[in-house]
Structure formats: C-alpha cells, structure tokens
Amino acid sequence: MRSKWIHKFMLLVMAGLLLAGCTNGPAKKDVKTTSTVRVMYYNEDSFHQTYGDLFTIQNDDIKIEVISTDKMYRDGEIEDYDKALQDFIDTEQPDVLMVDVGRYSQMVSEGKLTELDSLIERDKYNTESIYPALLDILKEKGEGKLYGLTPTFYRNVIYYNADLFAEHGVELPQDGMTWQDIIDTARRFPTDGDKDTRIYGFGREHYRGMTLDNLANTIASPLGLKTVNPETKKVTVNTEAWKQVYKLAQEALESDALYNLQEDPFENGGMRNYYESQLFLMGRMAMTVNGPYYLRELKEIKNRVQDYKPFQVGIVAGPVDPANPEISRDVYLNNVTAIRANSPNTDAAWELVKFINGEQYAKIKSRSMNDGILSRMGMTKDSDGINMEAFYKLKPAIDDSSSAVEDKIPYEFYSKFYDISSREIGLVESKKKTIEEALQVIEEEGQAALDQAIKEKEAKDGAPKDKEEASADSSEDQGV
C-alpha cells in the first residue's frame, strides 16, 4: 500500500516537471477525438510505470491499451518465436511496437513499420540532442530511413578505483583499452595477502566463478568472434583468433591478478555476505567491466554497509577490438519504439513515440539509471560525481547476427554444444588437454551436433532443404 502512495506522489511531482517543461516549448498538436493506442510490450504494469502513467498525465485525450506479449505463452513453450510473434501482431493489431534492434531491422525489410522521417519533419521534432550514433544505427537498419527511435541503450564500460591506482603507482585506465590492456594493467597490482584482505587488479563477480570458457567468451565479444556462422552453418572455433583468446584468458586466470568468486554470495549471510563478496564495491578491486546499472549499486552500497569507506570511481570506454578501437560491439538496443505499418491511429501513436523519446521524459528519467543510458545526450552529465561521457564515446557497431542465428540455427543445438565445450575446456583447465586439442574436438563434435540438429529440424518442419538447394536439385533432375 505504501509503495502505491509513493508511486502516486512521484507521478504528481513528475507531472509538475512535465507541465513546467512544456510551458516554454511549442504547443502540442491537438488530437481532435479521443484515441486509443494499442502498445505491444512484455508486461502491462511495467509499461505503465515506466512510460504510460507519465504520458497519460500530459495526454488525457489518448488512452493506452497495453497488449502484453505474455499472452503468447499461455499455451506453453513456443517452438517458432518468429511465427508466434507475427501471428500475435496480426491478431492483436498493436499500433506501437517496442522491439530489439534485430527485430526492428527484420520488420523494416518486410515493410511492416511506418517511416518516421516525414512525421519528424512535419512536427519539427527535435532529434539533435539524440546520440547521433544511435540514429545512424537505426537508419542503417532502416535501409537509410528512420522507422523507430529508442529512449535508452545499454553498454558496458570499464570502472576503476582511482584511489587504488594512485596508491600503487599504476597509470590510470584510458578510453579504448583492449582486454589485453586490462589484463596487463591488472597484473601490475600486488597479489600478496589473504583472501579476506588482499586486493585484485580486475574481476567480474560471477556467482558461479569465472571459468576459462566464460572469460574467453567475454574477451571474444568485442572482437566479433562467433562460435557458429549462421550463413554457412559451420562451427568456427578451431581458428587462430579463438586460440589466442583462450590463451589470453588462461594466462589471466593463472596470474592470480583476477578475482574469481567461487561461491554463491547469498548462501551464508544474506545481503551482508553479498556485499562483502563484491570487491570492487568494497574498494578491494582496481577494475571491473559493467553496465549502467552498476552506477546504482555504487550509490546504494554507501547507505547499506555500516562504516563504508568511499573511494573515487572513474569510468572509461571499452573494452575494444584492437583492430577497430573506435567502435564498440558491446551495445544493446532492446526498446526501439516503432509504429506498425497501416496503423489506423498513426497520429496518436506518434504522440506516444515522441513522448517516450522526448527531452521532457529524458529529464525525468535522468534521475535514475533503472532503464539504461539515455539516448538524449546532456541530460545526465554525471552520476554521484562519475562523469558519464564514456558511455557515449565509442561508435556502436551492431550486426543482425543474433537474429540470423535464431532463424537458421536450431535452438536445440546450443545445449549440446555447451556440453561439448564445457567438457573440453574443463580438460584444459585440469591440464589434461591443450587449448589446440580441445578446440579441434569442440569444432568436430560441435559440427556433428549442428548437422544433426538441422537435419532433425528440417524433418520436423517438412522442409528437407533450403530453397536454393531444392532449386539446384530440381535443375539437376531435369538435366539442366
């Protein structure tokens, strides 16, 4: 009950901010009749708390009806998500869609979204303060035009404890560090002392421990390395690039410079034990890599740990691919707002899209990091003294490989591949195999598992061959 009153009070405060912010701006175009905008979102309550309640304060002539995608799961697990989602959209006919960038790109190519450029021009909608790199991505995925906008994005950065760097005479991290740079820097910190008092150069607080396999995959991410090529349907891990990644991860883990949490921090002692296990938050780790949510953790711990000793925190952009140090592949757009093509409520839907991606909404959301980094630049210059520029420095690079993998690689393959990889890399960790030997087996057995999974899926779908293969076979049968 108390939380509901707090939520209502906050809405009244935000309403005042919205009204105050709108008095100096251009008048909003009147919607002549009351309209209902249907919005596709994963959860109704979450949408209203994040967007809908604030929008309604300013737009009492537009009613929002949330069409929750939770409905898709009423009959159990979904085997073909793409088909299920398309059937859901065809049935529910939402006006506004909130999708990830891969789905956005796919829907643009299929002609299922409304172009926004003409609406932006018509209303003189200000996009100048939006992070330009995000607009570039959305235009690139939109075949040169804008079909959606995103209010926030997600990106990891390198957090560092400036006090530890000064104490041990180590040069501060810089923008554009690679994983090799991070690990080399971590090794410059002392490794002496017992586990309850010593410091570490680097760490990421994995609850199940930082294994060779997950560290290698983390290092591979900014390099753009993939375990499977969805176009050729080949497993590609037995390569020189992957070998170097695993060797770097192996050397890092063996250096004793990395913090490697091996137990569940909640198992003994609850929240107190949890915070004691978070060594960067407690000032005992020089660097970590994390996202915008970590800023909230750094704030909250000051009030949750008795006699807490604060320290100076800085962030820099990275990690990067040494071959492309100006870009970052560690960027995610999960809430691209778009309007369905042929929506009967385009104008009202556009009002909602404008609001979600607008400056006034961004000003309110700048008071928290709960929903990612704001696309509107300059709204949050610092967080508790931490400069936010690092989140905007590197050019995002987003490919559609994840969507391509989902479309072309059977889901069942991944559990088998994980078992193979975990077994072989485990043998490397126990010194029973070399990295080269393990990767060769992973690729060979992984390929066999992939071939079998594709074969089973094709048999199940009743489509034994790709269209191109079927066409080629048909030509051969006809003697062409």
From TrEMBL:
Domain of life: Bacteria
Keywords: Signal, Transport
Record InterPro entries: Bact_solute-bd_prot1 (IPR050490), SBP (IPR006059)
Annotated segments matching region Disordered: 455-480
Intracellular or extracellular location(s): Cell envelope
Biased composition (Basic and acidic residues): 455-470
Major location category of this protein: other
Gene3D superfamilies, alphabetized: Periplasmic binding protein-like II
Acetylation listed as a keyword: no
One matching Pfam family: SBP_bac_1
Signal peptide, first to last residue: 1-20
UniProt-listed PANTHER family: ARABINOSE-BINDING PROTEIN-RELATED, SN-GLYCEROL-3-PHOSPHATE-BINDING PERIPLASMIC PROTEIN UGPB
Protein family: Belongs to the bacterial solute-binding protein 1 family.
Name the UniProt record assigns to this protein: ABC transporter substrate-binding protein
Organism for this UniProt entry: Paenibacillus aceti
Taxonomy of the source species: Bacteria, Bacillati, Bacillota, Bacilli, Bacillales
